[in-house]
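Following the same procedure, backbone shapes were mapped to integers, yielding the entry below.
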Amino acid sequence: MSVLINRQKYSAAFVASSYFCISASILTVTLFSGNILGYTSELWALKYWGPALYLCLLNFTLRYSLKGFPYEVALRSAFLGSVLAFGLYLTSLTAAWRAFGLYIIALSMFHFSEFFAVALTNPRTLTIDSFILNHSIQYWLAAVASWIEMSVECYFFPGLKSAQWLTTLGVAMCISGEVWRKMAMFTAKTNFNHHVQTVKKADHQLVTSGVYAFCRHPSYMGWFYWSLGTQMILINPICLMIYTIVSWSFFQERIYAEEMFLVSFFGNQYLEYQKQVGTGIPFIKGYVPEDSW
């Protein structure tokens, strides 16, 4: 059984990384062809029609070469690789487009790395939902709202977007948030799950080592600061404020609910851990029974 799981793990990770890299590489070459070789009518066609033709050909090839789960994995990975390439291209344009390019690179890497990390650390829970592209309607409405704010402010208040050091700070926040979250996933391994567990499994263990020695919820902390970093990249003051409030409220409720079950799973062991280590997100205490302090 373990051999089969390992094969599935590395197969899914291989398919995802292969199509992500292939798609990113091919589209990067076509989009930057004019920058490298100069602009001619032929290269104009390659640059603007090449990506569209490539995506059509890729979808046709995948549909007839892969079936079921591998097809779904390859399709989403190729899409995210294409988004990465498009983001790289935007970084070569004006300052505003550069910021948006960095933003969609962060978005692409986050969703791809979520699936890839689960494939390597906890393949038994691996599904198409591990990309978390269908996280929630609210998630994508928040993303669209940030695009609208950036567009409006670029048009009416272009000077607002001139503080490039804020974009750089946002990139640093996204990278550090990603690192913390993925370190949490690789440390917890099979104990990590995208969904709050309500039933303790036989192999479920309390992880307190690695990044968990510094905070109880490094994956949530990483996602929290990553989400704020995306708005710092875009220099969106309104969405930054809203993202902070909404994300903080979301993780406060999720941590409280999750720790109710963790206390029931591990009892005093978790209560002692709570006393030694914070949640990782400011002003969130989690679930603490009144008689435990």
DSSP finds ten helices and no strands in the chain. The first helix runs from residue 2 to 31. Confidence is low (pLDDT under 50) at residues 1-6. The radius of gyration is 21 Å.
